[in-house]
Design goal:
- The complex is a heterodimer.
- By secondary structure, chain A is mainly α.
- In chain A, helix 1 (19-48) packs antiparallel against helix 4, helix 2 (62-87) runs antiparallel to helix 3 (91-121) and helix 2 (62-87) runs antiparallel to helix 6.
- Chain A contains six helices and no strands.
- Chain B has three helices and no strands.
- The longest helix of chain B has 29 residues, at 8-36.
- Chain B has two domains: 3-69; 71-100.
- The radius of gyration of chain B is 18 Å and the shape is flat.
- The chains are: A mainly alpha, B mainly alpha.
- Chains A and B meet through helix 1, helix 2 and helix 6 of A and helix 1, helix 2 and helix 3 of B.
């Protein structure tokens, strides 16, 4: 027996938005609190730590992190363009823009891999200092979110796109939700970058 | 109007806006990095860096996440989230003043 979730592609008359969209916003609200708790912890630990670097740039690679910022900002544009392509009924352009989003996301992870490798090579681990504990926890959790986004976007670009033929509105809604999640991942990095690398 | 209900013409109008915001975000990223090389006093550096990050975050939320034209229920939920988020950010101040 199939279970049909109501108002998944049409707005719920009570809220004015689809249940899918309300759901993703509720999830993002919980994510704000998750990262908010970590940022709050960062402030407490930084203000009380005795061995915190004077500037993040003294121990972290700012040019690589800046490149990663550009990758994430660009991927935010490409994912919103992939949604716009579907609104303009162009599946090929959607796949092109979503493909670019996934490529940029992999670029972000590759740079993160080089950053982490360099830290491990110099024997800098989460246990090395309070700064590195915070650095690995926050960038690691953010990295896991990037991986989650890549898996979702790859599915939507590949097998998940079959839905476009049968339920185009519902598929467009899915891309909108995936986009909202991805923009949130970008938003977190926008604050992580100065907090860890520049200050 | 929620952006889920946009027509093709309205979406086309938004495209130019996305590129403008993209350009602004890149410029603000350069400004963020440039500020860090000025080696300002830490309080001023934090204030400036977080101000620029907030403008960038605001642009992403307003234009890419379309919060500039969202439904009331989404705004209500986000206002509540914002209040709780601000409370979380204030917790470090309580620790500085020895609250028990």
């Amino acid at each position: 027996m199939s279970v049909i979730i109501p108002y998944i592609d049409k707005p719920n008359p009570v809220t004015g938005v689809t249940n899918a969209k309300l759901g993703i916003w509720l999830f993002l609200a919980s994510e704000v609190m998750l990262f908010g708790a970590l940022f709050s912890t960062l402030i407490i630990l930084r203000s009380s730590a005795t061995d915190w670097p004077a500037h993040g740039s003294d121990v972290l690679n700012v040019p690589l992190a800046t490149l990663n910022t550009v990758f994430l900002i660009t991927s935010s544009v490409t994912i919103v363009l992939s949604w716009a392509s579907l609104k303009m009924k162009n599946l090929m352009k959607f796949k092109l823009h979503m493909g670019l989003t996934v490529l940029l996301s992999f670029g972000f992870l590759i740079i993160k891999y080089f950053e982490y490798s360099s830290k491990f090579h110099h024997e800098h681990y989460p246990s090395t200092s309070t700064f590195y504990a915070v650095y690995f926890t926050m960038t690691g959790l953010h990295g896991l979110h990037v991986i989650g986004g890549i898996i979702t976007n790859l599915y939507l670009m590949g097998p998940g796109s079959k839905m476009w033929k049968t339920e185009p509105e519902r598929f467009t809604g899915r891309i909108e939700c995936a986009g909202l999640y991805w923009h949130f991942v970008d938003l977190v990095w926008i604050f992580l970058f100065p907090a860890l690398y520049l200050l | 109007m929620s952006h889920g209900e946009m027509t093709v013409e309205e979406v086309k109008k938004h495209l130019r806006g996305y590129y403008v915001v993209f350009g602004a975000l890149l410029c603000l990223t350069i400004i963020t990095v440039a500020i860090s090389y000025l080696h300002l006093p830490i309080h001023l550096a934090i204030l400036l860096a977080m101000a620029v990050a907030s403008v960038k975050g605001g642009l992403v939320a307003a234009y890419f996440m379309h919060l500039i034209s969202e439904k009331k229920i989404i705004y209500s939920m986000l206002w509540l989230t914002l209040i709780l988020f601000i409370f979380l950010m204030l917790i470090p101040i309580f620790t500085l003043h020895g609250y028990k």
